[in-house]
Amino acid sequence: MRHYIKSIKPNLLSGQLLVSELVLQYLEQIEKSKDLNIYIEVFEEEIKAKAKSLDEKLAKGESIGALFGLVISIKDVICYEGHKVTAGSKILDNYTSPFSSTALQALLDQDALVIGRVNCDEFAMGSSNEHSVYGPTKNGFDSDFVPGGSSGASAVAVQMSTCAVSLGSDTGGSVRQPAAFCGVHGFKPSYGAISRYGLIAYASSFDQIGILANDKEDIEAVLNFLSVYDPKDASSVENFLQKPEEKKSAYKIAYFKEAITHEGLDPEIRSATLDQIEKWKNAGHQVDEIAFSMLENVIPAYYIMTTAESSSNLARYDGVKYGYRSPNSEDLQSMYINTRTEGFGPEVKKRIMLGSFVLSSGYYDAYFLKAQKLRGLLVQQMEVILNDYDFVAMPVSPCFPWKIGDADKDSLEVYLSDVFTVLANLCGLPAYAFPIKQSDNGFSISIQLMAKKSFDYHLFDLA
Ligand code: GLN
Questions:
Q1: Which of 157, 232, 238, 357 is 20 to 30 Å apart from 209, CA to CA?
Q2: pTM above threshold 0.90
Q3: How far is the CA of 13 from the centre of ligand 1 (A)?
Q4: Measured in angstroms, how far is the CA atom of residue 368 from the centroid of ligand 1?
């Protein structure tokens, strides 16, 4: 019961499977995988009732939505009317959203159902799902290991068949990296393709809702409804995504020398990537190694700009308007300070401080402005490359999942492990990560493809 388009939907439509039965199967899977700490909240009674009404709708011959019976989970940064949403943080403790995100609503309108709200790194800041007030989520391949992050639990939710699709968010790889760590498919759209209205902000010029699923057919089916223009999001683009007119038999693919020779790249991941490149060549595609010397600049540019944006975005959590308010305060000033001190976790505080630092008047030119210039150069370079090539191929993560709580893994090393994913976000490009091989250590290896802005659907053709 893994693939929605290939097997679940046909069975639902032919009457071989009821939505109510399907939902029970998923609920059973949630129960079985409880120890992995995937779900913060399961909407059990609600989804059972919704399933029953969908079954009745079909039985009566009423018209049904294109995503009839698609069971999804949502990362705890996506607003769902009347449901709690906390971004994995104490500061949004008990916050209930008064509205649904545009993206989620689009799926609900097509008769999809939400089974629950899944864990994530606090405010989507992290690569391991360890920075959550609800504790770490564990990898379904081996529960001693991290599932990746920040949408770690979305990846495990799909990996453990607790839902067909999970909506995550990707600011610098948070959909693709956990998808790779858990052996599922992860897609990050072009910036502006999916509305951010109702997505709790981390770094607004990078954030996009992304899709985790078992195959590309399911991702495409969901993307068809998610990529609609939304006047409520100023960065939403009208008539944006281009569908390929015809499938080419031979593509031009580039890969970066600096990526494949990267000193941090695990040898097994390197050889799996090179094998995939060979396969593409043998299938008649043109694959070229090209130089991309700016790869070493992507991590500093990303962490300067995203911490700057997050320090501004997170200023709104002050104990007045949303969520948690410290009870131990004497006056307004101490209420702000205590609320933020008690409400935010250490990783979020670190990023707010870093962001405030790079935006401060004395350092703005040296850090923020420089990073902005770098971003402009990266955008230009990628435009040149993608005018010449259909796709750029890269590993997703240089390393395999690490052990939960690994004391040797310092935060700089974790930041550096985003080296292959942040480029797509810096440039607003679509990127798709999919598994290519089981690894010798019991995990999975993925590769990612990037394409020109708005060429999201083209990615699925080559994949
Ligand atoms: N690991 C990256 C970070 O910590 C990416 C996070 C994300 O995409 N939300 O910022």
A1: 357
A2: yes
A3: 39
A4: 18
